[in-house]
Structures are given as structure tokens and as C-alpha cells.
Amino acid sequence: MGCIGINDMDRALVIKLRNIGDVLLSSALFRALKQARPGLWTSALVPAGTEDMLTGNPDVDEVITTTRGGFVEGARLLKRLRSRRYDLAINMTEGDRGAVLAFASGAPCRIGVDPAGKGFIGKARLFSRVVRLVEDGRHKALIDMDLLGPLGIRPDGAHVGLFTSRAQDARVEKMLRDAGVGPGAPLAVVHPTSRWLFKCWRDEAVAEVIDYLEGRGMRVALTSGPDGRELEKAHGILSLAKPGPLDLAGMLTLKELAALLKRSTLFFGVDTAPMHMAAALGVPVVALFGPSDHRTWGPLSDRARVVRASGFDCMPCRRDGCGGSKKSACLEAIGVDDAVRAIEGLVGGGR
Fold first, then answer.
1. Measured in whole angstroms, how far is the alpha carbon of residue 333 from the centre of its chain?
2. What is the CATH number of the domain that holds 145?
3. Rounded to an integer, what distance in angstroms lies between the CA atom of residue 340 and that of residue 349?
4. Which pTM does this prediction carry?
5. pLDDT single digits (tens) 48-84
6. Rounded distance, CA 299 to CA 303, Å?
């Protein structure tokens, strides 16, 4: 019903209407598509503000952004999609809007997530094929590529890529030089915040890890998102740490953060988009996990360590804190020594 072989397709639209980290992980699906059909033209449709995760990626030929605007913007978007004459549209999420956009694109082959009775009536009929995505212990990037099954594409692994320009790299290198961090000097990026506060660790514990890293000769750059709550948390952590770390909280674009990560020796932080960015760039990653499933959402890298507390049979509960409190006891129970051991096991110990 509308789906031909991948080798007979010329243009594909991939829709990922999710957050920054989710959009980055979708790059694995683009890589698999390009490997199966090198001449395929690929377009990504993502929310405005997440596009930096895919721009510059050689597997993505075009990045189209969308906002929840009014009728005029929606009409312009549909006109743009229809003009591409896609052979294939893949909606990577279970959302209603992505399903409608996939159908409206005019692509004869439309693949989407099985709604399993959720959403509006008849939603599944907007697709040529639906695929049930199941969290079965595999990484999310691998689970998402089950959507390629109807095309006969079954990758053995997932490769997530993130790319920056020379100008972006040079801008960050100058910023570091101006702060006294010379080329090749050890640098640890500490990103302790998330838009979801229940994923964050204790402020005083983060400060102790920062002091440990600085004490062993690594310059620390502390980063966060621009949200007011994240900035407040980041500055609170810095007030508890000894003087020395670079305060870059809320100051970097996503591409600048990627360039900073490329330059770093270590990433230390929580379950958030910058963790996925660091893993994609091959940076050693130490990540703290609590209520999230680390098997599904952990750093996709063989140069990573996940730190979790023991004695919590409820993990992963996938909830926003214990009893809806926005605080996760399993995360707060992680000791500073646990984090330090993970760092030493990954990049070596010593001061």
C-alpha cells in the first residue's frame, strides 16, 4: 500500500517533533537510510530550536523547522512539504501532529509509530505501515530504527553524529584562550542541570566533584541551559565550589556547546541533551541516572560510565520525582565517591 523498495526512492522526509536530545538521536536513522540508499535526498522536520542537532550532518540534506504557529505558518509548511514530492515520510513519534504532517506531505509511503488506540480515531490509517516501538532494553536510537523495518533496513548498530563548523570551533577556542585555557589543556565540561529538575543531583555534591576535577589539574567549564531555574541552580553550585571554574551557564548556543565538548577531556553531568551530545562527539562521559532507564536513554558510547545508586528496586520508575515531588531519592543517594570512582575509571586517577 504505497511503499516501494528503498532503492526506488529518491526523496524522504523524517519527522521528529521532540526535544533536543531526541532530535540528535534521530541522526542514527538518517545514517541508516543513507547507507541503504546513498543517493536518497533526506529532509528533517524538527521543532525550531533543535535544528542545530542535525545541521551540518552529511546524512541530512535539509533541515526544516516548525513552531506551533497559526494557520498561515501551517499553510506555508504544508506547501513546502508538498513541493518536495517525497517518496517516503517517516514520523518517528506517536504524536498526532507528526502523523497529520506525514500524510499531508503527499508521500505515497508513510511509516509511523503504532498509535495503539491513542490519539484521534483513524490515526493509524494515515500511514502505509505502522510499527510498534517497544522499550526492551535496547538504546532509544536502536529502538527508533525499527521504523525502517518495513523498508527491509535492519541495522546492527546505531551511529549518532553531531557536527560543528570551523568558525564555531574557532570561536570557542578563542573564548577558552581568553579565559586562560590554552590549546590541549585538560578541560572538563560539567553540566549539572536539566529542564527537568528531578533529573538533577545535589548542588553540594556537584560542587565537590568540581573541586576534585580542578584539584587534579582539569579546568572546569560549568554549563547549563538558559532557563531561569537552570541558571539559578548552576550559580548556586558555583557559589559552593572553590574559585576557578569557568561560568558558561546559559551563555552558549547549542553549536558552541558542541564545539566546547569537542575540545573537552571529560563530560560530567546528568541525563540531558548535552550528555548525548558529548557521547556523539566521542568525549568520555560520566552520567548520573536515577528515575530514567539508563539502558534506553544512557550515553550511546563505549567511552561512558553511568552512575546509579544501589538499593532502589523501584528504578527506573520513569516518574518526575518520588511521589511527584520533583526530587528523586535514588539520584540524591549517589555519593561523591561513586562519581569520583567513575571518573577515575574512565580517564585515570591522581591529582
1. 25
2. 3.40.50.2000
3. 9
4. 0.95
5. 999 999 999 999 999 999 998 778 788 999 999 999 9
6. 9
Pairwise CA distance, residues 81 & 101, whole Å? 9
Does one domain contain both 289 and 231?
A: yes
Q: What whole-number distance in Å separates Cα of residue 16 and Cα of residue 43? A: 11
Question: Is-contact 112 100, C-beta < 8 A?
Answer: no
* C-alpha separations of 196 from 26, 103, 190, 253, 273 in Å: 21, 32, 17, 19, 11
* Strand-pair partners of 221: 189, 246
CA separation for the pair 322, 324 (Å, rounded)? 5
Cα distances (angstroms) measured from residue 131 to each of 51, 111, 235, 304: 26, 8, 44, 30
| Total domain count, the chain | 2
| Burial class of residue 251 (count of CB atoms within 10 Å of its CB; 0-12, 13-18, 19+) | middle
Pairing of strands 129-131, 187-191: unpaired
Q: Are residues 188 and 133 in the same domain?
A: no
CB 281 within 8 A of CB 274: no
Name the DSSP letter for residue 119: S
Looking at the domain assignment, is residue 90 inside a domain? yes
Length of the chain as a residue count: 351
Q: Which domain covers residue 200, as residue numbers?
A: 166-347
Residue 35 grid coordinates: 547507507
* Residues 142 and 86 placed together within one structural domain of the fold: yes
